[in-house]
Amino acid sequence: MKRRIAVLGLCLAAVVPGLGYRAYAGMRAQDRRNVRQQLATLHFAPFAYQKVVYHITGGGGWFAQHYFHVVDSIKNHLDAVGDHNIDLRVVLQARGIALLEDAETNAALAHKIDALRRRGVRFLVCRNSLIGGGVEPSKLYGLKTRDIVEAGVAEVAALEARGFVYLKM
To answer: CA-CA to 25 of 20 to 30 Å: which in 4, 153, 159, 161?
Structure first.
């Protein structure tokens, strides 16, 4: 993985001179468009089939920004690999269950979660975290009984034993 990131960094440096020395966010709008256009021309080999479990245990912080980062990362993962080339699960445990709590009142977050679910992503919630936090399952956005697992850590371990790759968010 580190090698892939290093190679991508070298590619970016070759395609966009000075990108490593100037923050993308600080660029003028025209420069950002040029960077996006140059990067859009890069081609990559297709990914092999993947089985992945994202483990989310932390809260969303101010305005649920962390959760927007998480769901955007999952979308980017699906876009890169392809919806039919991945089995992706999200295990929500401890304060991580707040992702679905926040989605109850945040329409933008709910929309992103709905889009991921339509693409086959399963959001699994730790029963122990619901009990320990005194959270009613009906207060979690779109949660179905079949999406509640006995213990988040046990579910993650079981998925890893079945060949899923672990990603902590």
So the answer is: 4
pLDDT digits 0-9 by tens, 74-93: 999 999 999 999 999 999 99
In tens, the pLDDT along 115-138 reads 999 999 999 999 999 999 999 999
Contact 146, 108 (CB under 8 A): no
Q: For the chain, what are the domain ranges?
A: 2-40, 50-168
50-168: which CATH architecture? Answer: 3-Layer(aba) Sandwich (3.40)
pTM: predicted TM-score of the whole model, two decimal places: 0.79
Of 102, 151, 150, 99, nearest in space to 121 by CA: 99
Is the Cα dihedral 48, 81, 67, 92 positive or negative? negative
* % of the chain exceeding 90 in pLDDT: 67
